[in-house]
Amino acid sequence: MNTSDSEEDSYNERSALVQCESPTIPSYNQDHDMSLPQETDSKQRRSVSSGLDEPGPVEQERAATPEGEEEELTLKYGAKHVIMLFIPVTLCMVVVVATIKSVSFYSEKTSQRLIYTPFEEDPNSVGQRLLNSFLNTIVMISVIVFMTIILVVLYKYRCYKFIHGWLILSSLMLLFWFSFMYLGEVFKTYNVAMDYPTLAMIIWNFGVVGMICIHWKGPLQLQQAYLIIISALMALIFIKYLPEWSAWVILGAISIYDLIAVLSPKGPLRMLVETAQERNEPIFPALIYSSAMVWMVGMADSSNPNSADQRQRNEGGALAQEGVESEDDAALGGRRRFSAEEDLEEDRGVKLGLGDFIFYSVLVGKAAANGGDWNTTLACFVAILIGLCLTLLLLAIFKKALPALPISITFGLVFYFSTDNLVRPFMDSLAAHQYYI
Amino acid sequence: MTVAVFFGCAFIAFGPAFSLFVFTIARDPLRVIILIAGAFFWLLSLLLSSLVWFISIKASNSQDLRLQRDLLIFGVFFSVLLQEVFRFAYYRLLRKATEGLAAISDEDTSAISVRQMAYVAGLGFGIMSGAFSMINVLSDSLGPGTVGIFGDSQYYFITAALMTLALTLLHTFWGVLFFEGCEKSRWWVIAAVVSLHLLVAGLVMFPLDAAGELHITRASHYCFTFIHTARVI
């Protein structure tokens, strides 16, 4: 992967730091211009400024020197980053599961389908159903690939305004329309009497503040909260409108696509990353969850030339448009990126693409929607978290961009099907007899 | 069957584990990861043992209730053994990780000691085990119904909650003892942990008395818990 100039400097500088002794106090004040060999603890991260369609290339942290303390700090530091991602992923999943379990709207199956899954699943014939779900998957994935390629092309030819407009339209839809639908369903479930003017005010405020926080500047935690909320909304839409079997096959296919698009040399995401790095510029305003704010290089500030921070990724959320077809940034989905970077002063935290949040939540939400079994949901939840942990570990080992979906989704799928079919009868029998293992 | 029962049972079953988590584990990210990985290992062991049980069930005559019950008992014991195997596997994994860290570290101390890891791993096993036993029961307790309407014990929820509590704590202590035994190569300690786990699982199968309460088993579980606490301290 190409690194930007500043990173090369720091890299060279770091290799010059090999012989240092370890300082008493680890300093994170490593700056790119630092040239003192005493600063051994800089953990610089290579920032991969990738394009929109990153299926989660993972940034890695590098210790400045091979010092043991350095490594230990790396481990602690790495552990901290893992937790910084566990918390939002957990929150998103909790919101989705809570909604699924209480608001029946999202688990009711309708005959309405997204235009991206045109084939109807006939519950009577297994073969036909399987075939249709594969066809649906092919349609969905090709739409996503197509969108990614369009995005790469747009990015290459510098049509930034178009892409910005696209993203703004997509988040407008999520923040206004889908949250309106969601609130409506929640009110119906709890039989809350609500009038339109109040609702309009609520939605208006919610939406406008969300747009500002996400696309411009805002308090970090508010921005994080909004990103989690829109990921949850998106996941709920998927859970509702994707047919049963198609959803599972799509989850599997998306992880494979993620893997290919990020790791193969001709993958669109990789090309995006490289292009962005060549230009040394940040990509697009957030559809990336970031766990720490960098004040000098504002998170929501997309005009920052110090690319290090801006990670772009198109959530599969662009798929938001499913129901409404007009915008196509929908299928950009599948791009998620997961990057870690370090702050000049303080830990910059980690970033994870929203598409990852969405698909994790879709998996757990579907596990919660099918049957009333909580064990399956819990098992999928643990599996996804462990997958995320492993992905981060691989990141630290390989130090190159990695997709965040495959491992987690694989574990999630394996655990879902095995818990549902094997563990559930076992635990039910045990509970019936009150045996404890 | 009310919200009161739900909260009561939830706090009985998970209160201590939750407090242990909040006060000792939540602050340190490394411990949280070890906890979740411990839960994952327990889950893996459960998966494999359910697979074995499922195969045995499918291969046998489903009409024969005695056979089914015997297979279930076999499933329980096999699951216990497998859990201990996975505990050992987790121990090896953690040791490798610590060794790796220590090897590259200048100072001889690693970020977390084996004892702490043992405690966290045990708690991970315990929480997951408790969650899997209790969560479905808890969610049922929220809904309408009458406990024991067909002649079963009316104390089902409370016994389930107490048993879950006991098992969670026991798993924690077994974790500590097991890792200690592995560290010092005291195989009798490991054998003791395994046999105690088998004993505990087996005790639950004692015939119940007329009221359907697990008097004996609950009492002995609490004895075990106290013994283990004393030992650990």
From TrEMBL, chain A:
Residues 30-44 have a biased composition (Basic and acidic residues). GO terms for cellular component: endoplasmic reticulum membrane; gamma-secretase complex; Golgi membrane. The gene is LOC113047188. It is a multi-pass membrane protein. Its EC number is 3.4.23.-. GO terms for biological process: amyloid-beta formation; calcium ion homeostasis; melanocyte differentiation; membrane protein ectodomain proteolysis; Notch signaling pathway; protein processing; somite development. It comes from Carassius auratus (Goldfish). This is Presenilin. It is an enzyme of class 3 (hydrolase).
UniProtKB/TrEMBL annotation, chain B:
The chain crosses the membrane at residues 6-25, 32-56, 71-90, 117-135, 155-179, 186-208. Pfam families: Aph-1. The keyword Zinc does not apply. Keywords: Membrane, Notch signaling pathway, Transmembrane, Transmembrane helix. It comes from the Eukaryota. InterPro entries: Aph-1. It is found in: Membrane. Potential subunit of the gamma-secretase complex, an endoprotease complex that catalyzes the intramembrane cleavage of integral proteins such as Notch receptors. Component of the gamma-secretase complex. Belongs to the APH-1 family. This is Gamma-secretase subunit APH-1. It comes from Carassius auratus (Goldfish). The lineage of its organism: Eukaryota, Metazoa, Chordata, Craniata, Vertebrata.
